[in-house]
Amino acid sequence: MTAWFTALSQREKLLIVGGAALIGVVLFAMMVMGPVLRFQSTARLAYDDASTTYQLVARAAESPSGDNSLDSSAMRSILTRTAGRSGVVINRINSNGAEIDLSISNINTGRLYGWLGLLQLEHKIVVREAQIRPSNDGSTVTARLTMAEGQ
Length: 151
Prior knowledge:
Layout: H1 2-6, H2 10-62, H3 72-86, E1 90-96, E2 99-107, H4 109-123, E3 125-134, E4 141-149
Antiparallel strand pairs: 1-2, 2-4, 3-4
């Protein structure tokens, strides 16, 4: 291999060394910098999700509970209408007195929390109980929610 390299002209040697350097830079960018930049953007999204969750929980803790003036059919109508507009697919919905139980699967956390925030701000419907689990790949969640009218 070294005999072959020494037999090359000066221009060919520079071309091979330059190509090897270029391949080295590209491999470094793909193997080292790519994962670092992806980690940074993933961490930023996780922070945004956590911040949204904290704000929703803080607002829910501040609002006192009152008597339920919406009947279950009106609340169910609001939930299904706003879910459709927000791109949320409700798998199961059951009325349980003044509360509504929902099951939602494979939904982005931002979309879920955005919809819950809309329900609280515009319709005064809050989450009374929630079970939220990440999916196997970690990109979506599955949620079981109990919704009721808040103040």
